[in-house]
Design brief:
With 322 residues, this protein is α/β, with parallel strands linked by helices. It folds into 2 domains: 123 residues, Rossmann fold, CATH 3.40.50; 161 residues, Nitrogenase molybdenum iron protein domain (Rossmann fold), CATH 3.40.50.1980. Helix content is 49%, strand content 14%. The strands form 3 sheets. The protein has a 4-stranded parallel sheet with strand order 2-1-3-4, sandwiched between helices. It has a 4-stranded parallel sheet with strand order 8-7-9-10. The protein has a two-stranded antiparallel ribbon with strand order 5-6. Strand 3, helix 4 and strand 4 form a beta-alpha-beta unit. Helix 2 packs across helix 6, helix 7 packs parallel to helix 11 and helix 9 packs across helix 10. The radius of gyration is 23 Å and the shape is globular. 43% of the residues are buried. The N terminus is likely disordered. The protein binds zinc ion. Zinc ion binds next to loops.
Length: 322
């Protein structure tokens, strides 16, 4: 028995090992610039794709500094998924320094980009203030005139998914049927969540639809779901608001009786805590803006992020209604 079985077993183990490593080698290697995009790529790529991310959970993509290790990781990837619209200001430098030879897929291709409206931005109201003009110029050079946070509208999320699907098919045509099937299923889930968000927020009273967040990440969300967002930091986290900006927000909260301010998972809570304290607004909770939570947190996926954010918004704003 023993003599007959052992070589057979060894051969079986060997075959298993070989076939496993062959499968691993066949997987398409992809890199996503940030965690929200990585989750989308995982949903569309499924078993055929390895996904790594540059900026992980709770990370700030605006202020990311790629390391040589990141460049090495990118060099090994077949496809690099990025948001675009100026979100990854470090992207071109990283691509050229890494010698990346794969395909870059811009997930916002075809999205109707939201222009940064300076009239709506608390920063830019003092036109004769030279300091402010310089800040505004710096911001525009760094981030362009477009708001990059398009994923915060689930209808845009559908466009991201379609671009990811097409990018994967171009890089791995044998997987076409799988990517199409996965994308179709995932788009259905995104559409369902979009309807759920609209239904949940429809019940908010008109007078409780203006909120404060620390940086201006929810413009698309506000446009899509009927909220007005005021943010002392502007469109990127890279610029610190001045004392004057903060004072202006505090005045606005009092005058407009804005009920709540919301912290963000990627930004320091200190400034908003001060604003809440001085204005009398309450802290409504933490919103996930530019990154997911870790696996065990409240927003480990793109769709969970909306469930969490909408739950946080409705419980803070509805309780103020009466
Ligand atoms: Zn942002």
């Amino acid at each position: 028995m023993r003599f007959r079985f052992t070589p057979l077993l060894a051969a079986a183990v060997l075959a298993l090992g070989v076939s496993n490593s062959a499968n691993a080698a066949e997987k398409l290697k992809t890199m996503a610039s940030f965690s929200i995009l990585a989750d989308m790529v995982k949903n569309v790529g499924g078993e055929r794709v390895d996904v790594s991310e540059l900026v992980g959970s709770d990370g700030d993509t605006h202020e990311f500094n790629p390391t040589p290790a990141d460049a090495k990781k990118l060099a090994r990837a077949d496809v690099f998924f990025v948001n675009g619209l100026g979100f990854e200001g470090w992207m071109e430098r990283l691509e050229s320094s890494s010698g990346f030879k794969g395909a870059t897929v811009v997930a916002t291709t075809g999205v109707k980009a939201r222009k940064i409206d300076e009239d709506d931005d608390a920063h830019h109201e003092d036109a004769d203030d030279d300091d402010h003009d310089e800040h505004a110029d710096a911001r525009h050079h760094d981030h362009g005139d477009m708001d990059p946070h398009a994923w915060q509208d689930l209808a845009n999320g559908e466009i991201y998914v379609a671009n990811i699907r097409d990018g994967l098919i171009a890089a791995d045509p044998d997987g076409k049927a799988v990517y199409e099937r996965n994308a179709e299923k995932y788009i259905a889930a995104v559409k369902k969540e979009d309807a759920a968000v609209k239904a949940a927020l429809a019940s908010l009273p008109q007078s409780h639809r203006r909120i404060i967040t620390s940086h201006d990440a929810f413009g698309y969300f506000g446009d899509a779901y009927g909220l007005e967002i005021v943010a002392p930091e502007g469109i990127s986290t890279a610029s610190e608001p001045s004392a004057k900006d903060v004072a202006k927000i505090i005045r606005q909260i009092r005058e407009d009786q804005i009920p709540a301010v919301f912290l963000e998972n990627i930004t320091n809570a200190k400034m908003l805590e001060q604003i809440a304290k001085e204005s009398g607004a309450k802290i409504g909770g933490t919103l996930y803006s530019d990154a997911l939570s870790g696996k065990d947190g409240p927003a480990p996926t793109y769709i969970d992020m909306f469930k969490h954010n909408v739950g946080t918004l409705t419980s803070a704003l509805s309780s103020q209604a009466k």
